[in-house]
Amino acid sequence: MDSKGGGTEAQKFVWEGAIPLQIHLHDSEVTTLPNPPPALILAPRLGYLPLLVPKIKPFFSNSLPPGVDTVWFEYKGLPLKWYIPTGVLFDLLCAEAERPWNLTVHFRGYPGNILTPCEGVDSVKWSFINALKEAAYIINGNCKNIMNMSQSDQADLWHSVLNGNMEAYLRVSSKLKLGTIGDDYSLKLNSTSKSRQRTSDTDATAPIRTGRIPVRLYIRSINEDIDDLEDAPIVDSWDKISYINRPVEIWGEGKCFTLYNAVKALLPELFADKHLLTDNVSKAEMEDGQQSEEISSLRSPEEGGETSTEHAGSPLDTAEIKFLRIQGIEPKMEIPFGWVVNNLMNPEHYLHICVYIKVVEPITI
Amino acid sequence: MINISSWDGTLSAAEFYVAACAFSELWKKFNLALPQWSWIPSSKRPGIPFNHVEGYLSMENVILPSFEQEDYQGDDLMEKEEYSCSNVDEFIDDAILVQNYCHEVNHYDFHIVYSTSYRVPVLYFRAYRSDGQTLLSDKIEKDIPPNSAKLLMKSKWTFITQEEHPQLNRPWYTLHPCGTTDWMKLLLTNEDSVGQDGVASEKYMVSWFSVVGQVFGLKIPFEMLGNIGTL
């Protein structure tokens, strides 16, 4: 895996990934007849919606009412968080991929009670740099390497993201010494397993590192049994999405740390012990007449509560992971986590994971 | 116990819980003219019952201690009603010191949330008028001591920023955690009262708040700092 060269196949795939958008101006802001046609634009997965505004605005500027622009985007009534990368928004909000993705743009009436302010490209840049600092802090225990970046390096980094230029990005980001994760079958675990005491590597090649990995997890619950993803209820409020911004600590000397291990570390309650699972699931099924899917799916025990008392400690299934999406794909859980991070992370060094879970209402007796 | 010699200024999530509980107990004990802190347990995971130790500290409906405002700006249209109580014309002479009771009182909610990324507590706050209307940074600036206000204006992006509250999913203001470990190390490693085994987690929050609270003019009595271990 050569970070000085052109990047891996997977990285190219990710950097070239784009979502076709069809952007409509909100009715309330249309002052001309006929309505302006929607703007069709390809949005890079790794980019952010406000960065598209300079390209979109010309389509609509003639129709806008007088006033100052405060741009925001919306999907089926949900104001979109501008600091979440476009690809993540798509993977999370479109259960069934919608191409083109139909969004509505507003130039007025910014929902300040839901979205933090966005003053254009600068806001996005600072949000990106802050996320990068946070990632650096997680990886190295400090963000000195970001703070000490030269002005020209910082500009190059940002432009590489703006323009979707992977080679330029890899050139600059390798200077940040944020390292790559050894994706060999057996990971060498740093003896302290804490990255905070690590000094920066002066070696020209990117250092192999273990320790803490920046991850952002977005959980969407689907409370109903649906056959087709298209029928998934739309997300009409961000309260329906759980956002977990928590690092994953890689462990396991001599063992392969997989994506499964990582997700389990973040959502331990969704993973029941397999032995406990096989025994009690069949009992629970019989007692409560509950429909259950294959045993190998992941379940969660409920804490006391509604479970029947004859089976003290037997889990009543309340939530299970249906699938995960990272950069638009559903990777197999056995893939080494190091590979997933190195190849599928975003330019601010965060791995964004969308998790769809099914929450089953417990049966009350 | 935190081992001081190798300490990097951070706190684990479990230590945060201990520190937060101790802090709110101490606050209660000192009975400052401020509301109490309460621990709000919460979890981000749907359909899954949460563990009591996950959560944040909350102190709400705080009215900041006033300080002298030498150039009170009488330019807010909404506040014109209040001026009549002092029998002053609509156009207020800036040189007049206005009594606090004529000034619209602003309320603050403070939440102390643990950051798993930075491994330190982070302060989130919001301000609102008596009628519940949210205040923006230009109004907040008037409530905080002048030194903090200057810092706020100079460094818009790295001092106080608006971020999504990690638990409540709404925009709140926050004091950026970036430098926290540096000044926490300074604070606690210079303590005379560091015991042989190190520093108790309880001490962390009080020391942390002694710095952070100053932004808002909330000063911790000196006795509180020396009082750890006598709970």
TrEMBL record, chain A:
Cellular localization per UniProt: Cytoplasm
GO biological process, any: autophagy
Transmembrane segments: none
Domain Autophagy protein ATG5 UblB residue range list: 212-355
Keyword presence, Methyltransferase: no
Residues of the Autophagy protein ATG5 alpha-helical bundle region domain: 122-177
Gene Ontology cellular component terms for the protein in this record: cytoplasm
Annotated spans, Disordered: 285-313
Keywords: Autophagy, Cytoplasm, Isopeptide bond, Protein transport, Transport, Ubl conjugation
Domain named Autophagy protein ATG5 UblA: residues: 14-107
Name of this protein: Autophagy protein 5
Species per Swiss-Prot/TrEMBL record: Forsythia ovata
Organism lineage string: Eukaryota, Viridiplantae, Streptophyta, Embryophyta, Tracheophyta
Automatic annotation (TrEMBL), chain B:
Family, as annotated: Belongs to the ATG10 family.
Record protein name field: Ubiquitin-like-conjugating enzyme ATG10
InterPro entries tied to this protein: Atg3/Atg10
Provenance organism: Forsythia ovata
Keywords annotated in UniProt: Autophagy, Transferase, Ubl conjugation pathway
An annotated Gene Ontology molecular function: transferase activity
GO biological process: autophagy
Domain of life: Eukaryota
